[in-house]
Amino acid sequence: MLYYLGTELSSDVSALNIFRYITFRTVAALVTSAVIVFLFGPMIIRSLRLRQGRGQPIRADGPESHFKKAGTPTMGGLMILSGVIVSTLLWANLSSVYVWVVLMVTLGFGAIGFYDDYLKVTSETHKGFSGRRRLVLEFIIAGLAVYVIMINGDAPFSSSLTFPLFKDWIIDLGLFFVVFGAFVIVGAGNAVNLTDGLDGLAIVPVMIAAASFGLIAYLAGNAIFSDYLQIHFVQGTGELAVICGAVIGAGLGFLWFNAPPAAIFMGDTGSLALGGMIGTTAVAAKHEIVLAIIGGLFVMEAMSVIIQVASFKLTGKRVFKMAPIHHHFEKLGWTESQVVIRFWIISVMLALIGLATLKLR
Q: What pLDDT digit, counting tens, does each position of 241-294 carry?
């Protein structure tokens, strides 16, 4: 919205030219979303606490330290999404199809997560939305998003898979790219969802991933920088940096209230939406494989659940004391703060490795 103010009035007021720059609008989106969450966060928390009663159900088989969290409201993702959506609409160039595609996935996944949280709170159990139905809806939303991305790009590159470290090595997947891209987005959404189990554990790695892919999207969308770094140029993806900035700002605001002891939990409302948003950004910027590196912490959390379930079904034995893996370390005696901070460190290191692939060509 404010982007158009700069384009329409810059000829009369030269200072408004600043609204043309993605870098300025990204920082502005970050600050705006943070302010929105800081201002309206307490009101949202009070409202959710009144409506949810006993708050998010606590797993009976979980670490004993979690029982003291009973009564903490969930659906904190509403705070994050409010800041992200408003800030994006204010600062992004709304003529970009990528902006609308990412917003569609973010809101769609957020709605699915909200319904799941609602069922859990009202039934006071961990059994929310049917897993199979939830995945079907997620794949429909993600598949539609990938198809829109593909038809709005330059064929055959828009349907191709690119590889880090190799400039010219690409594989055209054709229509199968819709399936592949949808899998990336759905996988990212659910991996972040599984990571969200401790106070502050998910939101900081999400901000780290958002910062990384904000930079990647900006560089990939800039013809000069992409040529210098020898990465594939994807016209229009630079605007996704604005959304990533908004996610960072909203995440900082949410972390203020989610820091131990948490006043509110993110819930599926936030984790599914943010994971889907990061996954869609990676697909749009043609860095799907790099997502597995930068989001390696989320991959580790998801794989721990898959391994645990598969092992128990096949052998009747568990590989981990408890899954996802952050609970395994709690069972080993790590304090919650030790798990969270050490996982943050891992996330930073993986992000640096992922970003290094931009230059290693």
A: 999 999 999 999 999 999 888 889 999 999 999 999 999 999 999 999 999 999
Closest C-alpha among 122, 124, 79, 59 to residue 246 = 79
Q: Which two tokens stand for residue 121?
A: 């709170």
- Distance (Å) of CA 83 to CA 93, 178, 262, 304: 17, 30, 19, 32
Q: Is the four-CA dihedral 28, 141, 282, 302 of positive or negative sign? A: positive
d(CA 12, CA 257): 43
How do residues 5-14 score in pLDDT, each as one tens digit? 666 665 566 6
- The SS3 assignment for 334 reads coil
Give the Å distances, CA to CA, from 353 to 209, 276, 283, 321, 347: 12, 22, 19, 30, 10
DSSP summary character for residue 166 = E
Task: Give the span between the Cα atoms of 88 and 96, in whole angstroms.
Answer: 12
Q: Are 272 and 132 in contact (CB under 8 A)?
A: no
Written as six digits, the tokens of 273 are 């939406």
Number of Cβ within 10 Å of residue 122's Cβ equals: 11
Q: Which residues is 161 bridged to in the sheet?
A: 171
Burial of 57 (0-12, 13-18, 19+ CB in 10 A): middle
Strand partners, 172: 160
Whether 203 and 254 have beta carbons less than 8 Å apart is answered as yes
Mean of pLDDT values over 64-72: 61
| Residue-range domain boundaries for the chain | 26-356
CB-based burial label for 272 (10 Å; 0-12, 13-18, 19+): buried
Q: How many Å apart are CA 1 and CA 47, to the nearest integer?
A: 30
pTM of structure: 0.92
